[in-house]
Amino acid sequence: MKDLILVTGGTGYIGSHTVVELIKGGYEVVIVDNLANSTLESLAGIEKITGIRPAFERFDLCDTNRVGEFFAKYTQLKAIIHFAAHKAVGESVENPLKYYHNNLASLINLLHFMDQYNVENLVFSSSCTVYGQPKELPVSESTPTLPAESPYGNTKQISEEIIRDTMIALPRLNSIALRYFNPIGAHPSGHIGELPMGVPNNLVPFITQTAAGIHKSLQVYGSNYDTPDGSAIRDYINVNDLARAHVTAVSRLLERKNNSNYEFFNLGTGTGTSVLEMIRIFREVTGININYKIVERREGDIEKVWADTRFANQELGWKATTTLEETLASAWKWEKNLRGIK
Fold first, then answer.
1. Has 152 been annotated as catalytic?
2. Given the residues 27, 99, 131, 152, the one annotated as active site
3. Would you say 126 and 156 are in contact if contact means Cβ atoms under 8 Å apart?
4. What is the CATH classification number for the domain harbouring 30?
């Protein structure tokens, strides 16, 4: 009998790619999503890739009664991968209460019913935003967490604290927080990828949508950062590499290979790339010139960050292997499929 894994936010960007990797790895999957920032089309994409359409339940994880009903129905759950959260830095600055309510209440509900129904394993979708703007780069797991630059980042810090405290109080439970950097790209098939609602908050879908003619130009937030070309630097990781890391983390917990019942790992490539470099590489990969304009810095954004990946590489036995060029090509393939562009 296959182990059953709950993937919250599983119709979303990273969630859908992780569901594909879980199915490929021999797991059975059930998805919970309220479709606030995704569509059911991703289920069709997952089925096209894997030949399997995972079970799906639509509800809001902040609804305590519905969460309880779900756990009562799926009593054979072995582990949870928790993606479901609001994730736009800028929006979190404008509407912090929306982020604190959604991102924290959903996690608390899951932990409560994990305890009640004896579901012992949790992989949490965390973020490099827990480090704030680090004083030294690259960022390792021993880098101190600084005050978050945004309410979104703060919800990730607080969530990790909630999980850690819960693991202390309930030592039979186990958890891994994966602090990842900037996921980009799409499945090589072009059947699933990143599709934000409205104007994208993330760079690559803004690039591909501009290339597809959806937007007249791309906004580059800030040109006077202390970086070689003045634009912000991030560690961009392929979403499929990232999805594989979640499967590795689940296996680690199920096989009891974890060293403690609360672990955390940085997931990135170890290389920083600036916004303007990303635009240049996209042009080189696709031959398309992107119109862009420099605008003011976006509140809540940090200047530069990239990962020290050695601990995750050694301890998890996982490594990001997809090149930036391959990743941007996959993102453009997804965008073309989505828009019917030949």
1. yes
2. 152
3. yes
4. 3.40.50.720
